[in-house]
Amino acid sequence: MAQKSYRKSQLIAFNNAAAGHDGVLSDPSGAVVIKPCKQAEIDFYHSTSSHPHFAIYIPTFMGTLSLNSDPNPSTTLTRTATMIPTEAGQAIPVLESPHTIAQAPVVEKAWAPSNGGKITTDLAIVLENIAAAFKKPNILDVKLGARLWDDYAPPAKRAKLDKVAEETTSGALGLRIAGMRTWQGPATVDGDVSLTHDEYKVYDKDYGKSLNAETIRQGFEDFFLLERGGVAKGPVRKVINRFLEDLDGLLYVLEREESRMYSASLLFVYEGHGETLRHALANQREEEGLPDGMEGNETHGETHEDDDEEETKPAVQALKLIDFAHAEWTPGKGPDENLLHGLRSTIKVLEGLLKAS
């Protein structure tokens, strides 16, 4: 199979990000996300091959790119002699390219504040685009943890982020809505200046910072209760139940890992086009052999830890843990209670939505 490569002139700005730094790219097909990063994040993604249960809950790592100024316009995926299986069952070889690796700087593990702007680096990580499988993806980024800085952060950065946590839901709940994009439907576009050209409403980090422990549920309601886009309450309940099953699975894994992941986020994606969502749920019922009106994930609370076979599900929803610029495995130090606090709080919020709807 041929080596996978990209031409720099063909890379385009990635516009589906709910939060994060500037400078994220994609290929013309939209199948991948090319995220500028530091060496520490690349190293962490490489290390996840030794943690297969955890790797299920992160985007597929497809390799790295060197975003340098070399006059050669071709940019090649690099990951030495490794075959990456895709969900379609094909393997993409991403081979070492001396041309791109030679000029990629080795970045020491240290805090490099960017204030949400573009990261100064020649390195980029190539990940699957979770939203690519959806017609109208609704996307939510939830930052986890009350402590947002790692051990390499200088005192000034620690104080700044501690203040952010104290003034937002990060401190009280260990979670904060970092941003979201919700499809509002074509009927809502006329005269609504708050929507983008593709009929999305975008909530930035200031929206999440405006919420408190009493109003955080409103933020999740803004993400899920979108009848204007054709998503009715019945399908939404099924979507939330699916997310809760995924969150329970991630919680089970992280309670058994020894790690520290500061400023990591949960990425929620579900189908925002009502009719498409209903068809996807119907396809699931058909595949699972369930009668009409029943769902495989109808009730939250039961986890399946011993499933040996991974089922292929329609593109109803997806949940991934992302952003590992300040993540590492810490043998002997126990689970990451900082991250787990935010994860458990997120579960409680979604359970509250189900009870209220």
Folded structure, characterized:
By secondary structure, the chain is an alpha+beta fold. The chain is 30% helix and 21% strand. The protein contains 10 helices and 16 strands. The strands form 5 sheets. It has a 5-stranded antiparallel β-sheet, covered by helices on one side. It has a 5-stranded antiparallel β-sheet with strand order 12-11-10-14-15. Strand 3 and strand 4 form a beta hairpin. Helix 7 (216-224) packs across helix 10 (337-356) and helix 8 packs antiparallel against helix 10. The longest helix is centred in the C-terminal third of the chain and has 22 residues, at 233-254.
How is the secondary structure organized here?
Layout: E1 5-7, E2 12-13, E3 25-26, E4 32-36, H1 39-47, H2 52-55, E5 61-66, E6 74-76, E7 82-85, E8 91-94, H3 98-101, E9 123-128, E10 137-144, H4 155-167, H5 169-173, E11 175-183, E12 200-203, H6 205-209, H7 216-224, H8 233-254, E13 259-261, E14 265-271, H9 274-288, E15 317-322, E16 327-329, H10 337-356
Antiparallel strand pairs: 1-6, 2-3, 3-4, 4-9, 5-9, 7-8, 10-11, 10-14, 11-12, 13-16, 14-15
Helix pairs in contact: 7-10, 8-10
What's the overall average pLDDT, rounded?
78
Largest sheet geometry: 5 strands, antiparallel
- For the biggest β-sheet, the strand order reads 2-3-4-9-5
- Percent range of helical residues: 25-40%
- What is the end-to-end distance? 50 Å
Helix segment tally: 10
Unreliable spans are 69-76, 78-115, 302-312
